[in-house]
Design brief:
By secondary structure, the chain is of the alpha+beta class. It has one domain. It contains two helices and four strands, in the order ααββββ. Strands 1-4 form a two-stranded antiparallel ribbon. A two-stranded antiparallel ribbon has the order 2-3. Helix 1 runs antiparallel to helix 2.
């Protein structure tokens, strides 16, 4: 689920928003709004905005607590000991 919100959603959401906009928007003369003729610019800006929102969300809500330290996975006697969090010293 986390990979969906951190990877898939920021990549797919701008395209979905753009296509939804194109379905709703009516054709307009090019002289009235030239910026609307640059869909890739708006799509790129929406993607950048979603990546920034994702980074802020991960910084605020993701990861371990500052009072915990991550101990990575190890191979001991041919068996994998999974990684875990332990209280910081």
């Amino acid at each position: 689920m986390r990979q969906f919100f951190e990877i898939v959603l920021p990549l797919v959401a701008p395209t979905v928003i753009y296509f939804a906009y194109m379905l709703i928007a009516r054709p307009r003369p090019a002289s009235s709004a030239p910026a609307l003729d640059w869909p890739w610019l708006w799509l790129g800006l929406a993607g950048v905005a979603l990546v920034i929102v994702t980074f802020v969300a991960v910084a605020l809500f993701g990861g371990a607590s500052p009072t915990e330290r991550y101990e990575p996975a190890k191979v001991i006697d041919g068996k994998i000991k999974p990684g875990y969090f332990e209280p910081a010293d």
